[in-house]
Design a protein that fits this description.
- The complex is a heterodimer of chains A (about 160) and B (about 400).
- With about 160 residues, chain A is mostly beta strands.
- Chain A is built from two helices and nine strands.
- Chain A starts with a helix and ends with a strand.
- Chain B is of the alpha+beta class and about 400 residues long.
- Chain B has one domain: Thiolase/Chalcone synthase (Peroxisomal Thiolase, Chain A, domain 1).
- In chain B, strands 1, 2, 3, 4, 5, 9, 10, 11, 12 and 13 form a ten-stranded mixed sheet that branches. A two-stranded antiparallel sheet of chain B has the order 7-8.
- Chain B is globular, with a radius of gyration of 19 Å.
- The chains are: A mainly beta (about 160), B alpha+beta (about 400).
- Chains A and B meet through strand 1, strand 5, strand 6 and strand 7 of A and strand 6, helix 5 and strand 7 of B.
């Protein structure tokens, strides 16, 4: 496995960071997170918000973990964050990843939303050094050919 | 300070382990190995297997008490107990449940056990190959974050960042396990020495974990007989007294998409505090520690959160010399542990703690009196226990 192979993947498939074949995300069967998936399809980042606590919450829950109010609304947040932690993955644990290692996974906190965190890939050369605290912005990666189509929220360095 | 009702009331009497094998190398199936380990533990304790009246296990153990009780001809089963939660987080928790059952008078002889044939039933280190995902895995798996190593590397990296920890600290943990395994003929990695060079040159699995930072995957089974301390005194071996066993979690530790309130943690902050209160001892009293290695980074945080080292002293304290038995400042994983003896989901670590107190370790300390076990860092819930000698 070399970085060249990942670069090659990017060169010919600029639309998605990782190759197809990984599990495709679906909303919970009880519908909890449907508003999130619909929003990111429109290139809008949303998380849950408790109007009583005036605080954001992520991942989605049926109630506010602070005050136990049910059915929180999903509110739009600025699609910007800071890298909270990161990992460079070298060993493929899934057949779909055999030719895409190494790749970079980041944990991003959203200062505009009470520092809730999201996991995504950091777009760009996976060998480029990463600094915790670096500013990143969301990239909406649309998997239009999937059935049904879905969107993933990825991240890229703001200064690029 | 008054005695805690759990402290010193029960003991581990019998220790039983099958031969430990590389993954898929066991000649026997998982259930058969489980029976073998239980019989060995009974033989060691000197109890009739038919007198076992309780079963306690963890991590979705497949060898269930209904089937075991039938096979063993158990006279009266009074407890069939499973600790919820994955990985090795329930090792000391299963012991805690056995202890509670005995102290509350529900049972007299409980077997705590774990059997694991990863050749027969598949591996933990691979991502599931599925077409779609609608549980909380959807927040990570589509980004190629799906194995335990990948889940935990993120926490460990954050801890290293917050505390300025260098890679050499993780290396020392791995070196200690391999060093101790060389004196332990039962260890799967017996005869396979690890040097700093071999560690440094080993491939990355996921940064900051090299190959040697990750546990093995094995086949085997292990069991312990737990009974009241009074009954244990009438049995063959010297009892390893349970001073404390505790289980639990920090707030929202498994909140989806890595949103735990305390993120860079092995999840032992609350458990460790309660553990010492129950035991009536402190970190300064611990002579030897068996600290679950799913990944070395979890060992690092467990040692810190059990108060054995300050977070800003990790780089200085984490050396092979300090971790070595018998004379290191804090000998750890003295049988080789999950990295180099066997990945028996950490039950082998509790057994090794008891062995140290009996004076039967392959890397024996001089008269240790207090042995700590931390089970399964970074999962929810986690658990730990403190064993002592009978005085």
């Amino acid at each position: 496995m070399t970085t060249g192979e990942l670069s090659q993947w990017h060169a010919t498939n600029p639309d998605t960071y990782l190759p197809p074949g990984l599990a495709e995300p679906r909303p919970w069967q009880d519908g909890l997170d449907i508003p999130y998936w619909e929003a990111i399809e429109r290139d809008e980042l949303v998380v849950q918000y408790c109007d009583d606590c005036k605080a954001h919450q992520w991942g989605p829950e049926w109630l506010c973990h602070r005050c136990h109010k049910f059915d929180l609304e999903y509110v739009k947040v600025e699609p910007k964050g800071k890298i909270y932690s990161w990992e460079r993955v070298w060993h493929p644990v899934h057949p779909a990843l055999q030719t895409s290692c190494p790749y970079m996974v980041v944990l991003v906190e959203l200062p505009g939303a009470d520092n809730v965190r999201m996991v995504g890939n950091l777009i760009g050369d996976p060998m480029r050094p990463v600094t915790i605290g670096e500013e990143v912005e969301a990239v909406f990666e649309h998997h239009k050919d999937a059935d049904p189509p879905y969107t993933l929220v990825q991240w890229q360095r703001t200064r690029d | 300070m008054s005695d805690h009702p759990m402290r010193g009331r029960t003991a581990i009497s019998g220790l039983g382990e099958t031969k430990y094998y590389k993954r898929a190398a066991a000649p026997d199936g998982e259930f058969k190995m489980c029976l073998e380990a239980i019989l060995l533990a009974c033989e060691d304790a000197g109890v009739d297997p038919r007198d076992i009246d309780g079963f306690a296990s963890y991590s979705n153990e497949r060898s269930s008490p209904d089937r075991l009780a039938a096979a063993l001809g158990i006279k009266e089963m009074r407890l069939s107990n499973m600790f919820w939660g994955g990985g090795g987080g329930g090792g000391s928790g299963a012991l805690a449940n056995a202890v509670s059952a005995i102290i509350s008078g529900q049972c007299e002889v409980v077997v705590v056990y774990r059997s694991l044939a990863q050749g027969q039933f598949g591996r933990f280190g691979q991502g599931a190959v599925v077409n779609e995902i609608n549980n909380d895995g959807k927040w990570t798996a589509p980004f190629g974050l799906m194995s335990p190593a990948q889940s935990f590397a993120m926490r460990v990296r954050r801890f290293m960042h917050e505390n300025g920890v260098q890679q050499e600290a993780l290396r020392a943990i791995s070196m200690a396990s391999y060093f101790h395994a060389q004196q332990n003929p039962r260890a799967v990695m017996h005869g396979r020495e690890l040097t700093e060079e071999i560690y440094d040159q080993s491939r990355w699995i996921v940064e900051p974990f090299h190959l040697f930072d990750c546990c093995m995957e094995n086949d085997g089974a292990a069991a312990m007989i737990v009974t009241s301390v009074e009954r244990a005194r009438d049995l063959k071996p010297e009892p390893a007294v349970v001073l404390a066993a505790a289980q639990g979690s920090t707030p929202r530790n498994q909140a989806a998409a890595h949103n735990a309130d305390l993120y860079a943690t092995s999840n032992f902050q609350h458990v460790a505090k309660r553990l010492y209160e129950i035991a009536g001892v402190g970190p300064e009293d611990v002579d030897v520690a068996q600290v679950y290695e799913n990944f070395t980074g979890g060992v690092m945080m467990s040692i810190v959160e059990h108060g054995l080292c300050a977070p800003d002293e990790v780089n200085e304290f984490f050396t092979l010399e300090n971790f070595k038995a018998p004379d290191g400042k804090m000998p750890i994983n003295t049988s080789g542990g999950n990295l180099a003896e066997c990945y028996m989901h950490g039950l082998e670590l509790i057994i090794e703690a008891a062995r140290q107190l009996r004076g039967q370790s392959p890397n024996q300390l001089a008269n240790p009196e207090v042995a700590l076990v931390a089970s399964g860092p970074m999962v929810t819930p986690v658990s730990s226990c403190i064993l002592g000698v009978d005085r």
